[in-house]
């Protein structure tokens, strides 16, 4: 029988969790400093987690860590870790721990339960994918593809671009099933205000216009030094009328060159769940999954 004992001191869990996270981020290509920042971000304040040891017949076989926070005004639970020692794996303890975590969060008012994975886990295969973070280390300067080039965005082009990006962000969030349209709009407004408070003048950001044969075909938005050695690609967008012409990979090549120009050696993206076209493109271009976010709805009450 699987049992759960909540810990007053989370130290026995924390060291192993940090080590496994660090190993996962390093394996994905993060330099040590970037891996450490990711570990700190995921762990947050260790005191915020409720950690239970998983036991059977009085023997500890693993840990499960959970918490409930507000997400866009909605109580949301998170499974930060669910680990069963290899010698006890496959004996039903994993499913029992998942059921315990779902019940624990629901009892505290959570209406949604999220889990962030750094490696595939069949235990959460039925949790829909809401988004992935992908990354690729750029070993050498890429060769331009399909004659696609990039230039800095002008002040006159910025307002229309910003409005379009906000609309696209809202649509991606809703399509992924993460939030409803009003919650997605609120999140979009808040995120853009936080990320680029000074608009085009916000330090460390590149705003690009992509061109081919003298015609504008898309735009790009990148943040350099997002993590040590890592540029984050918030957007590399091909305009709808130019899609299906092979420009997607060429746009990523532009982003990779901009990454090197910005002094970084790796390019990172987010892709929302449901966007299989983008996921397939990133996979074919060698972008590995660094993190995958999955979630389910929990019954009210």
Automatic annotation (TrEMBL):
Task: Spell out the molecular function terms from Gene Ontology.
Answer: acyltransferase activity, transferring groups other than amino-acyl groups
- Write down the superkingdom of origin: Bacteria
Q: Which Pfam families match?
A: Acetyltransf_1
Show where the N-acetyltransferase domain sits: 148-301
**Acyltransferase in keyword set:** yes
Which positions carry the signal peptide feature in this UniProt record? none
The UniProt entry's GO CC annotations, sorted and at most eight, read: ribosome
The alphabetical list of record keywords is: Acyltransferase, Ribonucleoprotein, Ribosomal protein, Transferase
In Swiss-Prot or TrEMBL terms, this protein is called Ribosomal protein S18 acetylase RimI-like enzyme
What is the protein's species of origin? Answer: Kitasatospora atroaurantiaca
